[in-house]
What does this fold into?
Amino acid sequence: MPRGDGRLTHDLDPHDVGPQDACGVFGVWAPGEEVAKLSYFGLYALQHRGQESAGIAVSNGSQILVYKDMGLVSQVFDEATLESLQGSLAIGHTRYSTTGASVWQNAQPTFRPTAHGSVALGHNGNLTNTAELADLLEKRTAETGSELVGRVREFASSDTAVMASLLASYEDRSLEDAALEVLPQLRGAFSLVFMDNDTLYAARDPQGIRPLVLGRLERGWVVASETAALDIVGASYIREIEPGEFVAIDADGLRTHHFAEPAPKGCVFEFVYLARPDTQISDQRVFSVRAEIGRRLAAEAPVEADLVIPVPESGTPAAIGFAEASGIPFGHGLVKNSYVGRTFIQPSQTLRQLGIRLKLNPLRDVIAGKRLVVVDDSIVRGNTQRQLVRMLREAGAAEVHVRISSPPVKWPCFYGIDFATRAELIANGISVDEIRRSIGADSLSYISLEEMVDATNVPKANLCRACFDGEYPVALPEGSLVGRNLLEPEEHADDRVSVTMVNP
It folds into this structure.
């Protein structure tokens, strides 16, 4: 089918490239089940992890079909499309771009033909050694006389593309054996789901930076970024895919390999913001962790006020905890437009100035004359909080005290989260009081790193905290672009920031 008419493909596309992002991945092996529809509902549960594009790849045992397009899961797929995707195994992907154009060509799953069939791959995370892997791919294609010779750099412009191409380049091996060769050479954050005609595969980097879980259906298996996706398709939670683990699922059952020694460094920001509150990470329910962070925040940064309100939805659990510990009543002072997602309509300057009002609107009768504690999960650039404080004051708030359920974000993420560059991070080089003045709040406090980490019940040594403390658990290539962020050697970096590499 032509590209512009349905986005259904099973060929090699020279435009199937683009940088990797914060995403949601889903995979299911379940003969006799409607795997495309299961994938649809799984991706629906993971929509918060990516709202720019969605895709599903399905195998019927003889060929893989990939359907992907721009927009939300519910916009990309309809009943007729899902009915056309028949098979016994499938993978799905939702994309949120941290770099690169938000265009169809960058949507996933990524597809490549192999000597034994084909491979489709979905990736959540960000590799740090893509250039090195591209060199390896170039060498391999030259040795094998592949049709990609002379076009490797075109196909290697993203970590996802180079991984898929490397997996497809081993003509003398099965995909499972090729993966055992390729996976140990990957560096950075990667939670992968991929498939050939008969087998579902999943893999997680040795640090386990991005989440990946395994679930059981009555007649099959599921892998997903979060346990919430297992719940929505009726799968029972079995366990997390371990750091450094590679899993294969087919008619012979489930096989597992450890391609690297585990050195756990799970992303603490998953607890703060990324994951759904009903998801379970490291045997901890995310909602409970966020509520506990709120309680600790109230103890660390008390304030006299009349009402605690959250910035919905991510600030709600911490606000509940803050209200419980402080004794200040909890209330909803902001209404969120639940239907604001990815939009392709560019606003005019007049509409752009309305900013946050597209997503949030104050309840004037609730907040007028009140001293408010406004609880949010983080401050990155400060633009949202600045507009929010102004909007609350215009609605009649007597005082606005901002409380943040994570420490100041001072360093960019190189492992798959869309944080600003260092120059754009408001906490980079200025004090908390200067940030308070910038956003116009009466007071501003963040929870300490120690209290936030302690609230997760995960050992500090097992968490990646780089965005808060600058200690990056996976070595980064100096002077190179990793995702959207330029990493400078420490001696040449901005005086306000130093980047520390820590060995896992």
Notes: The longest strand covers residues 117-127. Confidence is low (pLDDT under 50) at residues 1-21, 486-504.
